[in-house]
Amino acid sequence: MSRRFERGLHDSTLTRRGLLKCAAWAGSGLVWTVAGGVLQSVELAQAAQNPAAAPKGLTFVQISDSHIGFSKEPNSTPQDTLQAAIDQIRALPVGPAFVVHTGDVTQLSKPEELDTASQIIRGVGRTVHFVPGEHDVIGDDGAAFFSRFNGDAGRRWYSFDYEGTHFIALTNVLDLQAGGFGRLGAAQLEWLEKDVKGRSASTPIVVLAHMPLWTISQEWGWGTDDAAQALSYLKRFGSVTVLNGHIHQVMQKVEGHIQFHTARSTAFPQPAPGTAPAPGPMKVPADVLRSVLGISTVTRTTQDRALAIVDSSLAGGVAAARKISIGNFTFAPANLEVPAGTSILWVNEDDVPHTVTGTDKDSPVRSPALDTGDRYATVLKEPGTYRYFCSLHPHMTGVVVVSS
Fold this sequence. Notes:
Elements: H1 16-21, H2 23-26, E1 31-35, E2 38-40, H3 45-49, E3 57-63, H4 78-90, E4 98-101, H5 111-122, E5 128-130, H6 143-149, E6 158-162, E7 165-169, H7 186-196, E8 205-209, H8 227-232, E9 240-244, E10 252-255, E11 258-262, E12 294-301, E13 307-313, E14 322-327, E15 330-332, E16 335-339, E17 342-348, E18 357-358, E19 375-380, E20 384-389, E21 397-403
Parallel strand pairs: 3-4, 4-5, 7-8, 8-9, 9-11, 14-17, 16-21
Antiparallel strand pairs: 1-2, 1-13, 3-12, 6-7, 10-11, 12-13, 14-15, 17-19, 18-20, 20-21
C-alpha cells in the first residue's frame, strides 16, 4: 500500500510500522498462568476449536475501559466495539461464571451513557461485577455509578467468594490529585485489612481495580499512591492476581506470589509509556482498531490454584503459547516453526538443571538456570531462525524458526 502511517513526535497516530513495534504492549494473545509466582503455560487455543479440551474450573472474563459516550478518533462508536466484546464473550466455547468490568464504563458519567452501557453489558447474560474508573465518578463522586452497577450509592468497594477464590473490588479513583496517582485511602485500606484477616494463606485472591496497583509510569500517573500498603496485606497469600484497566494495553508483572495484569480497552488504545508526549486516545487506522482492543479470559483450573489469563483481540484470534519440554537431556520438539508474535515456553521436566541460551550474541532467548519444574517464556516477534542450547549441557540444542 502507498499510504504510510507514521507516528510523529507531537501526535499519537499509530503507524503500520509503529504497530509492529507496539506488538509487545498491545498484546498478541499471549497465554500464560502463574501458580505461586511461577510462570506456567496453559493450552487454551485448542479449546477454542474443541470445547471438550477446555480447562475445567472457574472461568471469568474481564472487560475494561468501554468509554461509552466517547465520540472522537479513533473510535466514534465505542458502543459498537463494546457490543463486539459482549458478542465475543457469548461465543466463548466455555461460558464464563461471570464478567468483571474494571472501570471507565462511560466517558462523562452522563445518565444516557450509563443507560447505554448498562443495556449493552446486560446482554452478556452473566452476572457482572464492576469497579469505577475516573470517568465514571465525575460530578457526584460516583453515586450514580455505584447505585446502578454496585446496587447502592454507598457500596464503593466490596468482596465476594466464588468456588474457593476470594475476589476484592477496590476503588482508587475518588481522591485523585493533580499530577498524581490513584488512591485507596485510609478507610478502604482498613476495610481491606479486615477483609482478608483470618483467611487461609492458601486461598487464591483476585483483586480488581481501575488504576494499576504497580507503578507503570510516574510521569503519567499510572499507579496508586498507597498500593504498597494494600499489597502488604496480601503478601502472605500463595496466589494473588491483580487485574486493572486504565492504561488500555496489556502489561504484566510478577512480584513474589503476586501477578499484575492490565487489560486492553474495548474503545481505543493508548500509547506505551515514553512513546508519546502524554497518554490519551491513540489514533489508529480503522482496519487496525479492533486488533488493539480486546478482552481477557481468566481460568482457575481444578488441578491447582493457577490462574490462566488469555488476552484476545476484538479482531478475533488468540495466539497460543507453544511449549517445549526439557527432559532426558533433550529439547522436545527440538525443531519448532511458529508465526511471529508467538510466546514460546520451555518447561524443565528433567531432574537436573538446564538453561535455554541463544547461540547468537543478541538473541532474545536467554533463560536463567531452570531447576526441575521451572519455566521460561519469551515472545519472538521478529521473523528469523533462533538457535539455542543448554549452557550446562552444550550437546543439547534446539531451533525455533519464526515466520512472518
